[in-house]
Amino acid sequence: MKIKKEWSLSNSDAITDVPSLSEKRSWVVRKWKWLILCLLPLFIVGVFTLVMGSMKSSEPYEKALSLAQSNPVVKHILGQPIEVGWFISGSISNSSAGLEIPIKGSKSSGTIYVDADKYSGHWRYKTMAVQPDQGGELINLLSPNVK
Membrane-crossing residues (predicted)? Predict the structure, then answer.
């Protein structure tokens, strides 16, 4: 019995009504590994969404998609409506763009390739073409009468 009294007297809760050190630690400190595990995927998805959004709002992307959707050869080969695939790859900066935009229609799918540079605030396109996935010739979107 004497041991129990000594223990209870040495317990900080019994003497001062202050929580012990393990109880003082916040939830974040105790669960930091789980917190990182849960927040890391959200961070990655957020960065991915931001990058995709900036590419999709760029002039080279919008122009390439518009030309592909209005090109009669692309419409004939891929079918209508022509929609954008999920993952756009490439890079875009203030002075250049190199994009690969997956597209799909009712018959087939393909990829729009864009290569452009920006001079004096205006985009100049070196390449803007559609390559159907089923093979075939590259469809030049910059001069619609030429494949």
Answer: 34-55
- Residue 113 to residue 100: CA distance in whole angstroms: 5
Please state the domain extents for the chain: 23-54, 57-138
Q: Phi and psi for 125 in degrees, rounded to 5? A: -95, 125
Instruction: Give 85-116 pLDDT, tens digit per residue.
Output: 878 888 888 889 999 999 999 999 999 999 99
Q: Which two tokens stand for residue 23?
A: 């109880």
Q: How many residues does the chain have?
A: 147
Domain 57-138 has CATH 3.30.465.10: no
Residue 63: the pLDDT is: 93
Neighbouring residues of 63: CB distance < 8 A, sequence distance ≥ 6: 123, 125, 128
Q: Is 108 helix (H, G, I), strand (E, B) or coil?
A: coil
**What one-letter code names the amino acid at 133?**
D
Cα-based distances in Å from 82 to 5, 102, 105, 130, 145: 81, 10, 4, 12, 19
Contact 109, 94 (CB under 8 A): no
What is the reported pLDDT for 147?
47
